Amino acid sequence: MWDKLRAYHKTVADRRFADMVDAERAAAFATQAGDMRFDYAKTNIDDTARDLLIDLLDQADVAGKRDAMFAGAAINETEGRAVLHTALRNLDGGPVLVDGQDVMPAVLETLARMGKFASDVRDGRYTGQGGQITDVINIGIGGSDLGPAMAVKALAPYHDGPRCHFVSNVDPADIGATLRQCDPTTTLVIVASKTFTTIETMTNARTALAWMREKVTDPGAQFAALSTADDKTAAFGIASDRVFGFEDWVGGRYSMWGPIGLSLMMAVGADAFHAFLRGGQAMDLHFKSAAWVENMPAMLALVGIWHNQICGYSTRAVLPYDNLLSRLPAYLQQLEMESNGKGVSMDGADLAVDSGPVVWGEPGTNGQHAFYQLIHQGTRVIPCEFLVAARGHEDDLHHQHQLLVANCLAQSEALMRGRSLPEATAKVADRFSGDELERQARHRVFAGNRPSTTLAYPQLTPFVLGQIIALYEHRVFVEGAVLGINSYDQWGVELGKELATDLQPVIEGRADATSKDGSTAALVSFLQKAGV
Ligand SMILES: O=P(O)(O)OC[C@H]1O[C@H](O)[C@H](O)[C@@H](O)[C@@H]1O
């Protein structure tokens, strides 16, 4: 199948797809899920390419794998675990069995406990030593940080709870700056860690505990924990009624739907959090039931596979024309690159095709004034994924929102159309002539024919955010299933952690660097002389 796709791509690689984009194509190369529209008409995918891409889904039995995931099979084979973040948003769905046991009662009970705790904090029934909680600090990293941090920012218009801060980096600059903004007597610290062993999180948690101890007689009472490891949360001194547990079938980067979302719930309240879950659930239902050609996560994944594995474009820009989604690119970097950045397939063989792409991006219009130069005129083609809302939340400034939307659509149009040499020449003909005219015009040529997709939605509500995040999760699943990757482990993060543990005594001067390579030893020596 890959060979067929590559061979077909060769036959169409040089055509100008810009010339194909009429109303009929726009209708046929778009999918609708709820009230969201995903447009991929501005790509070089035609009916034949799409059929061949859909064949990949059948060849990889993506439908069977999808059903196995929702049914609680241990599809994370290297860790022997089910993959059931979908159960966390299965609000009124049926039972979900893991090893013959329905997990839904425990999921719903934890959700209800979270809701009660969040409303107690928000309404002042649970207080700090100094009174009503004014600040919540979520200490976590990776999946225990990026999801809630992204979502709290995204749902800022709905934020009516305590201020929320996110501390992730072991760099003391992160926690230092945060603690200086907070009063320990009215602060709740949430230690978010699936394993409760992550060195950055545990180090920051101890720092926060020491900070609170200076002003608060029972600092443990102003701590909550989100984890799968209740023995470790108890050892840290957090009472079980403020521990919100989840199971190992929730991957870290898929965990914001459950306890890891507690800070989001503190910010926006239980009702808005439930609406977020319902948005995710709506996307699950769509993913499970829509035919492939209408299936938004499947088509998003196939467009990505076309661009990365077939066309060879190795990066993808995510460009939300929605400032509230400014952390979405960072969130997606973990979701996509930690899930599908692997060189070995499920059976342990080398991957036959490239792994998932480099994902990067910034909100528009900011990026336009920074890196879009390269996207438009650089030598590499960078497929762009635009996101845009019909309406923002600043009703009085709707004209500004319209300008934002115009910019978003203008960028995808510009990428596709480009500007030819005659057009560029006409632009500057009044200022230059002869050789200089041609030279000046060439700098103003845009090759065009550069692919992009656009995800459009009415407004970034909690429900829509849930739809968007679940869309991307399922896209990662489909991509992983087609590539033959286990999207749910992350062995690639281990080696660096082990070496950091080895290096710590060297940096502290308790061990020497002689066992290290020359470059590392020289850097240690430089940093030691400079005061580390
Ligand atoms: O939630 P934790 O157990 O503290 O893990 C936090 C993060 O660290 C790990 O290194 C993984 O790469 C991530 O997938 C995970 O989200």
UniProtKB/TrEMBL annotation:
<dbReference type="InterPro" id="IPR001672">
    <property type="entry name" value="G6P_Isomerase"/>
</dbReference>
<keyword id="KW-0312">Gluconeogenesis</keyword>
<keyword id="KW-0413">Isomerase</keyword>
<dbReference type="InterPro" id="IPR046348">
    <property type="entry name" value="SIS_dom_sf"/>
</dbReference>
<keyword id="KW-0963">Cytoplasm</keyword>
<dbReference type="GO" id="GO:0004347">
    <property type="term" value="F:glucose-6-phosphate isomerase activity"/>
</dbReference>
<dbReference type="Pfam" id="PF00342">
    <property type="entry name" value="PGI"/>
</dbReference>
<comment type="similarity">
    <text>Belongs to the GPI family.</text>
</comment>
<feature type="active site" description="Proton donor">
    <location>
        <position position="338"/>
    </location>
</feature>
<keyword id="KW-0324">Glycolysis</keyword>
<comment type="pathway">
    <text>Carbohydrate degradation; glycolysis; D-glyceraldehyde 3-phosphate and glycerone phosphate from D-glucose: step 2/4.</text>
</comment>
<comment type="function">
    <text>Catalyzes the reversible isomerization of glucose-6-phosphate to fructose-6-phosphate.</text>
</comment>
<comment type="pathway">
    <text>Carbohydrate biosynthesis; gluconeogenesis.</text>
</comment>
<dbReference type="InterPro" id="IPR035476">
    <property type="entry name" value="SIS_PGI_1"/>
</dbReference>
<feature type="active site">
    <location>
        <position position="497"/>
    </location>
</feature>
<dbReference type="InterPro" id="IPR023096">
    <property type="entry name" value="G6P_Isomerase_C"/>
</dbReference>
<dbReference type="InterPro" id="IPR018189">
    <property type="entry name" value="Phosphoglucose_isomerase_CS"/>
</dbReference>
<dbReference type="InterPro" id="IPR035482">
    <property type="entry name" value="SIS_PGI_2"/>
</dbReference>
<protein>
    <recommendedName>
        <fullName>Glucose-6-phosphate isomerase</fullName>
        <ecNumber>5.3.1.9</ecNumber>
    </recommendedName>
</protein>
<feature type="active site">
    <location>
        <position position="369"/>
    </location>
</feature>
